[in-house]
Amino acid sequence: MSMVNKMSKKNPARDHLLKALEAGIRLDGRGPEQFREVEVHYGVSNTAEGSALVKIGDTVVIAGVKLSVETPFPDTPEEGIIMVNAELLPLSSPRFEPGPPGIEAIELARIVDRGLRESRALDLRALCIKKGEKVWAVSLDVCTINDAGNLVDVAGLAAIAALQDAVFPEYDGVEVNYKEKTGKKLPLSKTPIPITVLKIGDYFLADPLEEELASYDARLTVTTTADGTICSLQKGGDAALTVKDIGKMIDISMVQAKILRSKL
What we know:
This protein is of the alpha+beta class. It has six helices and twelve strands. It has a single domain (3-261), classed as GHMP Kinase, N-terminal domain (Ribosomal Protein S5, domain 2, 2-Layer Sandwich). It is 28% helix and 33% strand. Strands 1, 2, 3, 4, 5 and 6 form a six-stranded mixed β-sheet that branches. The protein has a four-stranded antiparallel β-sheet with strand order 10-9-11-12, with helices on both faces. Strand 2 (50-56) and strand 3 (59-70) form a beta hairpin.
């Protein structure tokens, strides 16, 4: 017996979902590839160098950027530093508990981080102050406020929006004055956007709800830039994906990424 069949027999919710999809109905009435309403709000924190709150449906994520002057890594003495951290707050879902980051939080942070690094969205060399001695470090924190599905895509959009919002604080060569902002923006040249597509039975769904994420066979998160370049892929789920499946999921992601990018 296949894994999919086992899942189907043990998961009545999945059976109900498949029956609805066969009838052309999604749980909230959307089309298979349609996103919920998207909102992007900039400058939601007065203390961060940059911040944004993003809502997709009832899923809400806030991202903040903190800038500091640090010593560069020995192998990249002329490049600044970027670090991405994700925190799944217990207030956002009963699934999340206090304590060290779990697998889901680590994966979310890595997907966002990989999209930024592989796309070279930030010009890290432009963050160098003095080779081998001082560079700007960009700390990007992503926090969940409410989880109603598709945290990865919401977090990815919030991360880019926060980076767009960020400005450098005053720096006199010795100390950073966080109370004064220069108005100078980060050297951000690209906007990598992750789009997650689920495969449930023979159906492909974008912007998955929490209930759909509990019943998928496979998922693929595709991060692309505005010119259609694929920066990263992240596969999840036990079921295998064919080349045709992957092509279909990439096509969906390309279309939806353009729509989300237009909200920035």
